[in-house]
Amino acid sequence: MENPFVLLETNLGDLLIELFPDKAPQTVANFLRYVDQGHYDGTIFHRVVRGFVIQGGGYDRSLNKKPTHPPIPNEARNGLTNHKDSVAMARGPEKDSATDEFFINAADNGADLDHQDDSDEGFGYAVFGQVVEGSEVVKKINWKVVKATDEFPELPKDEVYIISAKRFE
Predict the structure, then answer these.
(1) Which domains does the chain have, with CATH numbers?
(2) Which partner for 68 in 83, 99, 141, 142 could form a disulfide, CB atoms 3.0-4.6 Å apart?
(3) Within 10 Å of residue 109's Cβ, how many Cβ atoms?
(4) What is the dihedral of CA 42, 138, 14, 160, to 10 degrees?
(5) Could you read off the pLDDT tens digit of each residue along the chain, which spans 169 residues?
(6) Residue in 93, 130, 94, 107 with CA at minimum distance from that of residue 15
């Protein structure tokens, strides 16, 4: 079976992401459900940390949180690592709290973000995909100047958003 691909069309260029359902089946199914429902269309990259990550998928262009499905189990023990251009699920303090937000690693972050132990803090972040085309777009987004607001300490000063997210055949 071939791995599915998702095309993220952003206002700064396109990202083609290969997904790994054999390593992260629940995470990939969750991500594709949001893609198929058009959830990511018009969402922003609300967290940009230079040399670390770009994160998005959860807020619309007016900075309103989008409704989500229930959280999914964390598949961070799948053997995939948070290396440059890998795609992983964002989560809260609890290990099984990921819903719609995802991030793309702008550097090799495995030492900090990969599974260490089964505690909430050490469980890590589940990698489920890889940017296979568009790494220059990841870099462009990652180098955006950010402004701190009360709710968004690393919000790009110039809006960066997903125009559309769709399966790529």
Answers:
(1) 5-164 (2.40.100.10)
(2) 99
(3) 20
(4) 30
(5) 699 999 999 999 999 999 999 999 999 999 999 999 999 999 999 999 999 999 999 999 999 999 999 999 999 999 999 999 999 999 999 999 999 999 999 999 999 999 999 999 999 999 999 999 999 999 999 999 999 999 999 999 999 999 999 999 8
(6) 130
Structural tokens at position 71:
């959280």
Amino acid identity at 163: I
Q: What is the CA angle 124-127-130, rounded to 5?
A: 150
Structure tokens at 135: 């790494």
Between CA 169 and CA 152 the distance in angstroms is 35
Strand, coil or helix: 28: helix
In the chain, what's the furthest Cα-to-Cα distance?
45
- Whether the CB-CB separation of 100 and 57 falls below 8 Å is answered with yes
pTM for this prediction: 0.97
Q: For position 1, what pLDDT does the model report?
A: 66
Q: How far is CA 157 from CA 26, 90, 146, 153, 160, in A?
A: 34, 22, 5, 11, 9
Residue 111 to residue 131: CA distance in whole angstroms:
20
